[in-house]
Design a protein that fits this description.
Elements: E1 6-7, E2 10-14, E3 22-25, E4 39-44, E5 47-57, E6 61-62, H1 64-69, E7 75-76, H2 85-97, H3 102-109, H4 141-152, E8 156-162, H5 168-177, E9 183-187, H6 195-205, E10 209-212, H7 218-229, E11 235-238, E12 250-255, H8 273-283, E13 287-292, H9 297-304, E14 309-313, E15 324-329, H10 342-353, E16 357-361, E17 370-373, E18 390-392, E19 397-399, E20 406-407, E21 421-424, H11 428-438, E22 444-447, H12 457-466, E23 472-475, E24 488-493, H13 497-500, H14 507-519, E25 530-535, H15 541-547, H16 551-564, E26 572-580, H17 583-601, H18 606-611, E27 617-630, E28 633-642, H19 645-658, E29 666-671
The chain binds adenosine-5'-diphosphate (ADP) and zinc ion.
Adenosine-5'-diphosphate binds next to helix 5.
């Protein structure tokens, strides 16, 4: 039989689902129109789906029997590519780098309405309030120097390391103003925390700036997205997903507070918006600024190695001094209540009498981290997670901060029927209650995730602080970040020990960053600031560096530890989390998983080593994770650690491959994990 060859155009179509692209045939009449970045409608399973053209193959020869298995696309939905080419490249990079799929990356990158053919809400995007007009500012010599370096560069990555209150935001704004007709993305760690930065950008760029945040309605999301896509705005400001803003003429990306852990998404597509932004800057050959007062150890290391240009602001603006930091030793101090030393209360009273404001941080929400029966020692645990439940007094419930489920405590202990139930430990609700009892004349407000769930609640608190309707703002780490309240002269940590001893190689880094950021909120106006840190472990080495505002000293100490233990930046990590429903069966299965993993990663035949699996990495585990159960799934994990990211990936793939036939254990990969609990 003669070989029948047809030349039919094929395309690769990416759908916003957790999968790579699918191949389709292009009917002859659509061949002319089809281009990467266009939306098309294509048959999918038993229905139809909108996807994006990502690749064309005009020359594929297909035989008749092959043709039968491929379906044809039905129609083309756009005249012009909707997704710019560079953005498609970024989406594919993210899918591949994080060992996920391009489809899941697409789903994270583009509002879902775009695939539902929705038009978006008409008209202007409304803002919550008017921004004040911009102040006239003369840059300091340090600001000027940093800015000129940024302006004169054509491309490349910079670390802008400026102490708190040194005027980093001003540099971001000026750098954008110098872009000519090019556009900018500004990433902030959490939009809820950054009302003020939004105001400052609006004061300069008016309606040429759009904001991406979780509070947008689906319609607003599409409208913003289309404005960016159509070149109607200059700046996209937002959290993680703004890194995918569909600009066609991007000139600059800014990542404010680049050290923040919230740039990493913890569920679904586990990508870091910071690292995706760095990748985007390379794809587009543009400039990128990573800004922080407390850079991540990795970024500072890369700056030292010359991979990032280093720009430093050592002084606060207007020669304002850095605040004085005092460590309060709670083992010696006279305690006035569970939470407060006499000393801190005196400071708060004095500060009020002088007409200034204070911040008090405790990085734990709720009333108390657990209820305990003093007869038998029983504590309430979440039925679905291996986590003790936090008591919330306002709702009188025990809440799980992992899965958000809650239950009502009983009057008697469920175990021994005893009735002497005690609140153990501190949460933000409790320190608020205690302070209110001790100093009733203080006008208090609490800010944590529980008081900022409503749409404008965060903005109102910030406004009340600005208007000085609040004397003391208490809260979790939310209050430590980004705010610029000129009348705050005292910042305090109630119980620093919460953060000190977490079983994670980044815990000192986070603690240093958090306390330094909090300290940075004090003394930003004309009156100098003071910071008080209450702790039961005053000799902890982190406090010396916080007290002396000594980032570089802290870095030096930390980088040596990292080197010794070969943790990042001296290695790369990939974490594999195994989860299973039934504990006994799962643990048995994990034993055989371990055996298989040993086999594939330590080949008996030494020749195999040079083939594709080099033993230039280490495997820690598999072993039970610190949090053994979340949402009814038991968890084990392993960490791959090594300098060669290629062999790490390969090993991770082999591990997945080797357990493919095991049905009751699910494996989930996290590239560059931030959290090892
Ligand atoms: P950072 O982001 O480094 O903490 P900001 O950019 O928030 O600092 O600046 C702190 C405050 O100082 C802001 O109110 C800002 O308007 C103001 N500011 C910035 N640069 C200058 C300057 N050169 N002179 C006077 N004030 C300035
Ligand atoms: Zn739970």
């Amino acid at each position: 039989m003669p070989f029948l060859e047809l030349r039919v155009m094929q395309v690769n179509i990416l759908f916003p689902i957790n999968a790579e692209g699918f191949t389709y045939l292009v009917p002859g009449e659509l061949e002319e129109k089809i281009k990467p970045g266009l939306r098309v409608l294509a048959p999918f399973r038993s229905g139809k789906k909108v996807g994006i053209v990502v690749g064309l193959d005009k020359t594929t020869a297909i035989t008749q029997d092959k043709e039968i298995t491929l379906k044809s696309i039905e129609s083309v939905l756009d005249d012009e590519p909707l997704i710019p080419d560079n953005l498609l490249k970024l989406i594919q990079w993210v899918g591949q780098y994080y060992m996920s799929t391009s489809g899941l990356a697409l789903k994270n990158a583009v509002p879902s309405g775009i695939f539902e053919g929705k038009k978006g809400s008409k008209g202007r995007i409304t803002y919550d309030h008017e921004a004040a007009p911009a102040k006239k500012i003369n840059l300091t010599a340090e600001q000027q120097k940093a800015l000129s370096e940024i302006i004169s560069a054509v491309s490349g990555a910079f670390l802008l390391h400026g102490v708190t209150g040194s005027g980093k935001t001003e540099i971001y704004i000026r750098a954008i103003e110098e872009l000519g007709d090019k556009e900018a993305i500004v990433l902030v760690p959490e939009i809820a925390l950054t009302t003020q930065i939004v105001d400052r950008f609006r004061a300069r760029f008016q309606d040429k700036v759009v904001f991406f945040h979780s509070g947008l309605s689906p319609g607003e999301r599409i409208t913003s997205w289309r404005k960016i896509r159509n070149g109607e705005v200059k700046v996209a400001l937002g959290v993680r997903s703004a890194v995918f803003a569909p600009f066609k003429n991007l000139g600059l990306i800014i990542i404010d507070e680049e050290h923040e852990a919230s740039y990493k998404q913890f569920e679904g597509l586990k990508y870091s918006a910071r690292d995706a932004a760095l990748a985007r800057s390379k794809i587009e050959s543009i400039k990128i600024i990573l800004g922080s007062a407390t850079p991540s150890i990795e970024s500072f290391y890369h700056a030292k190695k010359g991979k990032l240009g280093y720009l430093e602001l050592t002084q606060r603006v207007e020669q304002r001094p850095m605040p004085r930091v005092e460590i309060i030793d709670m083992t010696r101090e006279e305690k006035e209540s569970l939470s407060y030393s006499r000393k801190l209360l005196d400071v708060l009273e004095k500060n009020l009498s002088e007409g200034h404001q204070s911040l008090i941080m405790l990085n734990r929400r709720g009333y108390s981290p657990f209820l305990m029966c003093t007869d038998c020692g029983y504590t309430y645990k979440c039925p679905a997670c291996s986590i003790t439940l936090t008591y919330h007094k306002d709702t009188k419930t025990l809440n799980c901060h992992y899965c958000n489920s809650f239950l009502k405590p009983q009057d008697a202990c469920p175990e021994c029927k005893g009735t002497k139930i005690k609140y153990i430990g501190l949460g933000t609700q409790r320190i608020e209650e205690e302070l209110h009892e001790l100093l009733p004349e203080l006008n208090l407000k609490r800010m944590d995730r529980d008081t900022t769930t409503k749409k404008l609640s965060h903005y109102r608190i910030v406004k009340d602080m600005e208007d000085k309707k609040i004397a003391v703002l208490l809260g979790t780490q939310m209050i430590a970040k980004g705010h610029d309240f000129p009348d705050v002269t005292v910042a305090a940590v109630v119980f620093a020990d919460v953060a000190l001893n977490l079983p994670d190689f980044r815990s000192s880094e986070r603690t240093f960053q958090l306390f330094t950021q909090l300290a940075g909120r004090a003394g930003r106006g004309d009156v100098s600031g003071a910071v008080y840190i209450q702790t039961y472990e005053p000799e902890h080495y982190v406090f010396d560096y916080v007290r002396n505002h000594d980032y570089k000293g802290f870095y030096q100490n930390e980088i040596e530890l990292r080197k010794e233990l070969s943790y990042p930046p001296f290695s790369k990590l990939i974490r594999v989390v195994f989860s299973f429903r039934n504990k006994e069966d799962g643990v048995r299965t994990m034993k055989s998983v371990s055996a298989r993993i040993k086999k594939i990663t330590r080949p008996r035949n030494p020749k195999l080593k040079t083939q594709n699996l080099k033993s230039d990495f280490e495997i820690l585990g598999p072993s039970p994770a610190s949090i053994e159960k979340i949402r009814n799934y038991w968890r084990w994990h392993l960490i791959l650690k090594g300098a060669n990211s290629k062999s790490l990936r390969l090993a991770a793939l082999k591990i997945l491959e080797s357990i493919k036939d095991i049905r009751d254990v699910k494996a989930d990969i996290d590239v560059d994990p931030i959290n090892l609990l």
